[in-house]
Amino acid sequence: MLLPQQAEKLILDLVEPLTAQDTETLPLQAANGRILADPVTGRLDIPHWDNSAMDGYAVRHADLLACDAQPVTLEVVEEIPAGYLPQKTLQPGQAARIFTGAMLPPGADTIVMQEETRRDGNQVTVLASPKPQAFVQHQAEFYRAGTLLLPAGIELSAPDIAVIATVQALQVAVYRRPRVAIFSTGDELVTLDQLATNSLLQPGQIVDSNQYALAALVADAGAEPILLGAIPDQPQQIKQTLLQALQTADLILSSGGVSVGDYDYVEQVLAELAADIQIRSVAVKPGKPLTVARFSSPHRALYFGLPGNPVSALVSFWRFVQPALRKLSGRAADWQPSFVSGYTAQRLRADGKRETYFWGQAVFVNGQLQFQLAGGSHSSGNLINLAQTNALAMLPIGQTQIAAGELVQIMLVRTL
Ligand code: AMP
Ligand code: MG
């Protein structure tokens, strides 16, 4: 049984990220949430030219040296809205009315904000002396043309899209979405498709919930889920499904059948397909029976056999599959789950032998993060009280309890 950190490292080492062959070019408007595949540079300085950061007056600072003693009056020779080319060069004693973002006229070096002036016809009186260069945004102050603007390997979001638009990159190269094949194993399982034609469960049957939960997590991770159904506990069918998955998938997820029961065939099938099994169990609770294998020629894919218990399947995904997906997707960094610390509202107890996860909700109470344990049974078979989970509290190996009100490590699995 591997330690969780060992398993995490092993898994990340097994991941082969998407490469330059796995990219697509998208219009910038369609690139939100995607991973940038090529660095972005711009052809123009930002700002493109000296401009005003305020509504006010463009002036020559030298004209206002006397201003501290008494107000100075200047002649307003021009009005420059944003988007217009200044027509005049400021001479001594002159000012130009200017608006935020407008180009500085030649000769001007300082902006006096409107609030510090009094206007009278074509004259403006400056009431307080500005600092030299005040409220001037200088050409290239924010970005120098030709230098690196954004590196490859970052996930694009609104601010990045604004930045890329600013340098007129209409299209961006991003990695394609990783393809993740998902199937469930178990004779007892009935899929939603099957229920659509016959909504009666036979005695002993249950609904395959893992497949849909995993598909949602895969999509949330920016990958493309490929649903391959619920497969009976029959080695031949599991093998066929794996072969089908290998045709397209970068990563394969199955749930169920990885324990040591008589009907757990996954390991046998992996061996028949010459997959290299690297992990069989990890010291986490829930989620101990985790199988990780690497397929090689002719099709390469990383395989995760998750436990069938719904809670175990999801915890294993959050703890081990998500980091792999993040690396696979072309992200350059930040693969591992992030833990934050917060106060637990209830006492948490574990046996100390495995890294133990508790599901519930992280909420802000009086500005502090608090973990509230889900009510009801904390059994890995209970998926009902998993609803609305946004966080997992974690007790590391060796720790048997945390009292209510104490700090606990919290893994956020949804944005708060
Ligand atoms: P297994 O890992 O196959 O031994 O399954 C462990 C438990 O999880 C059993 O009670 C299964 O019925 C249940 N289970 C397995 N797969 C699923 C699934 N896809 N959806 C819901 N429950 C499942
Ligand atoms: Mg089973």
From TrEMBL:
One of its GO terms (biological process) is Mo-molybdopterin cofactor biosynthetic process. Keywords: Magnesium, Metal-binding, Molybdenum, Molybdenum cofactor biosynthesis, Transferase. It comes from the Bacteria. InterPro entries: MoaB/Mog-like_dom_sf, MoaB/Mog_dom, MoCF_biosynth_CS, MoeA-like, MoeA_C_domain_IV, MoeA_C_domain_IV_sf, MoeA_linker/N, MoeA_linker/N_sf. PROSITE patterns: MOCF_BIOSYNTHESIS_2 (PS01079). Its cofactor is Mg(2+). Catalyzes the insertion of molybdate into adenylated molybdopterin with the concomitant release of AMP. This is Molybdopterin molybdenumtransferase.
